[in-house]
Amino acid sequence: MPNEPLEREILRPLWKVHILFHAQEGPIVGHWMLEELREHGYRVSPGTLYPLLERMVQLGWLERVGAKGRRAPKDGRPYRATAAGRRALREVEARLRELIREVHAARKR
User: Fold this and answer.
1) Are strands 62-64 and 78-81 parallel, antiparallel or unpaired?
2) Average pLDDT, stretch 62-73?
3) Residue-wise pLDDT tens digits, 1-37
4) pTM of the prediction?
5) How distant is the alpha carbon of residue 54 from its chain centre?
6) Based on C-alpha coordinates, what's the Rg of the chain?
7) Which of 28, 67, 97, 98 shows the smallest number of beta carbons within 10 Å?
8) Per residue in 41-56, pLDDT tens?
9) Alpha carbons 14 and 49: distance in angstroms, whole number
């Protein structure tokens, strides 16, 4: 049985990092992102992902684009990272790098 608190409290927030990473590379669509997250072992459903994408639009991190995304032509909801989304991703990357350095240093002791 999966560890629900781990999934809900720690892993699920990482979905946003994955989304921002791919959306800053170019337009993404929900179906492609769903499969990408699943490939990384996340337990995600469309009923969870699409509201998350819309929340990220509301927060100003993603925007919808007019043309279909290059990831999955059948899916008509392409998104890309905004300037604010790219800044948020850089901030998260910096903090993750700092944490990883700290963890590695502690393990060497």
Assistant:
1) antiparallel
2) 68
3) 467 888 888 888 899 999 999 999 999 999 999 999 9
4) 0.84
5) 12
6) 15
7) 67
8) 998 999 999 999 999 9
9) 12
Tell me the C-alpha distance between 29 and 46, whole Å: 12
Alpha helices, H only, 1-109: 4-6, 12-25, 30-39, 46-58, 83-108
Give just the sign of the alpha carbon dihedral 55, 50, 29, 22.
Answer: positive
Q: Is 90 helix (H, G, I), strand (E, B) or coil?
A: helix
**97 CB contacts (<8 Å, ≥6 apart)?**
none
List of domains in the chain: 4-108 (1.10.10.10)
Angle formed by the axes of helices 12-25 and 83-108, nearest 10°: 120
* Amino acid type, 109: R
For 62, the token pair is 């993603």
Copy the structure tokens of residue 71.
């990831």
